[in-house]
Amino acid sequence: MPLNTIVSEKDLKESSSSKAVLLFGADWHEACPMLEMVLGALALQHAGSGENVQDGAILFGKVDAESATELSDKYEVTMVPTILLLLSNSSNNGDYTISERLEGESLADPSTLTLAVQRLVKTQVGATTEEETAAAIASGTINTTSNAKDALNARLSKLVRMDTVVLFMKGTPDKPRCGFSRQVVELLEEQKVLTYASFDILEDQEVRQGLKEYSDWPTYPQIVSV
Fold first, then answer.
1. What's the CATH number where 169 sits?
2. Fewest CB atoms within 10 Å of the CB: 12, 110, 139, 196?
3. Could you give the 3-state DSSP secondary structure of residue 87?
4. Which residue from 160, 162, 151, 147 is spatially nearest to 195, judged by alpha carbons?
């Protein structure tokens, strides 16, 4: 089943779907065609009338991450492929909130995507980010102690001083794992910045999340110069 082409938030809202699965991809990435086929098969099971879906049908769509910049920026998509599982929030003008994000190595196994869609099917529409965060704190998934935060900030302080210029990216300069990281590496080469340190945020979720607050910048890649 072909995926719907989504180019703006308006396309999402006009679908009237309470749940959505979006593939943010790019023509140049070799993994995107395979993921489109997997999503197409899942769409046959869960799209349409919504008989197998609580609270309505699921919209399965694809987004060109590099041209639909409004959507990429809104949902903080900084690498391709990225798959977002979304829930409509009726209390917030029908805007969508992210239920789950899949990217990088998590997409190497198609069963990961299948299980994520199954979780979306069972997820109650209207669950808020605050409720999910509270549940994560209660379960211990999020550590709220000041000692843990202080330790992370101390670690980040060392990382940003690894060199005069430090690039926090997805992948490595030799093997970037998203188009945006690849573009920054090329820009550094063009500007003759030949000596710099890099850190692959896909290998460390603690750094990936903590640096956003530490640097007060929500997306990647990030360049830090000291």
1. 3.40.30.10
2. 139
3. strand
4. 162
Domain residue limits at 9 = 4-48+56-122
Flag whether 165 is in a domain: yes
Map residue 136 onto helix, strand or coil.
helix
Query: How many domains is the chain partitioned into structurally?
Result: 2
Q: What is the pLDDT of residues 55-107, one digit of tens each?
A: 457 899 999 999 999 999 999 998 899 999 998 876 556 688 898 998 877 78
Record the pTM.
Answer: 0.55
Q: What are the distances in angstroms from CA 210 to CA 104, 159, 199?
A: 19, 12, 14
For residues 104 and 83, what is the distance between their CA atoms, to the nearest angstrom?
10
Token pair of 179 as six digits: 């188009």
168 close to 221: Cβ distance less than 8 angstroms: yes
What pLDDT, in 10s, does the model give residues 171-213?
A: 999 999 998 999 999 999 988 888 899 999 988 888 888 898 8
